[in-house]
Specification:
Order of helices and strands of chain A: HHHHHHH
CATH topology of one domain in chain A: Four Helix Bundle (Hemerythrin (Met), subunit A)
Oligomer: heterodimer
Number of helices of chain B: 3
Helix content of chain B: over 70%
Number of strands of chain B: 0
Largest sheet of chain B: none
Strand content of chain B: under 5%
Number of helices of chain A: 7
Strand content of chain A: under 5%
Distance between the termini of chain B: 56 Å
């Protein structure tokens, strides 16, 4: 179990470094898939099987594919001639190293830093407990419903932002003059 | 068994790498990739705390699921914005998107 954790941690961190340093954005998105898969393995190691499956289905199946689509739609920047990092990247590196140091220092001063996992009582089913908690009025039904409203709002907003009315009209409005023009152009050539 | 500290240090490192990506990358899509790494680091923390502190209370997993939903909404709106900006400005480099600066 320890060796599995160490391998997964190395895979996650190496993939994450490749995500933020890789010049080619398609490669960066594929390294993100690798990192997300490592996180799913960590969920399985933590006895959260449902979250591992959800991680694979939503993150790898939907979000990473959405990233690859977006990279394809903005394809010109894939072969970006400029550098992948901006000119103040060393300030960013310093900030992130300081953040890591600060987090590690804060966590190591906490009393429960190196505690071992609590025992799961026998017969405890985490998945059914999670389902109960998500729809029980005593627990989390309100955040659950708010999350679904948020998803609908994000869906409508994303469609509204990305929708291009001119591009939506152009196939029919643009094709008929072109179809009418091209025989004339062909006729004039004859 | 693996102590809790390993998970916490791993997620702190993943968060810092994502922070570096958000601050240093020039491409707007790469910035969103960094945000995804940071959200995953947070999720590792939530699930590890659930498992190590009190597994009978399911709160940590519920929080993780809410983070999943928020991440999906964030990436949908973010990528729609990037595509819209690309259509209007023909660039997704964050340095060149300064039309709201002055």
């Amino acid at each position: 179990m320890t060796i599995l954790f160490l391998i997964t941690a190395v895979v996650i961190l190496a993939s994450a470094v490749m995500v933020v340093t890789s010049r080619n954005l398609v490669h960066a998105a594929l390294w993100l898939v690798s990192a997300l898969f490592g996180v799913a393995v960590l969920y399985a190691l933590l006895n959260a099987g449902f979250l591992a499956v959800v991680q694979v289905v939503i993150y790898i199946g939907a979000i990473a594919i959405l990233f690859i689509f977006a990279v394809m739609l903005t394809r010109r920047e894939m072969r970006d001639t400029g550098p992948g990092l901006n000119k103040n990247w060393w300030v960013s590196a310093l900030t992130s190293i300081l953040t890591f140091g600060g987090l590690a220092f804060l966590l190591s001063s906490w009393s429960g830093f190196s505690q071992t996992p609590a025992a799961i009582p026998s017969g405890f089913d985490a998945v059914s407990a999670l389902g109960d908690a998500l729809i029980s009025p005593d627990a989390f039904v309100l955040p659950f419903e708010v999350a679904s409203v948020l998803l609908v709002a994000a869906l409508v907003g994303a469609v509204y932002i990305a929708f291009n009315p001119r591009a939506g009209d152009s196939p029919r409005a643009g094709d008929s003059p072109r179809a009418g023009d091209s025989p004339r152009a062909g006729d004039s050539r004859k | 068994m693996i102590p809790l500290s390993w998970y916490l240090i791993l997620s702190a490192a993943l968060f810092s790498i994502g922070l570096f990506g958000v601050l240093a990358r020039r491409n707007a899509i790469a910035i969103l990739l960094g945000v995804e790494l940071m959200l995953n680091a947070v999720n590792i923390n939530l699930v590890a705390f659930w498992r190590y502190l009190d597994p009978v209370k399911i709160t940590g997993q519920v929080f993780a699921i809410i983070v999943f939903a928020v991440a999906a909404a964030e990436v949908a709106v973010g990528l729609a914005l990037v595509i819209s900006v690309y259509r209007n400005r023909k660039t997704v480099v964050a340095d060149e998107l300064d039309m709201m600066k002055w």
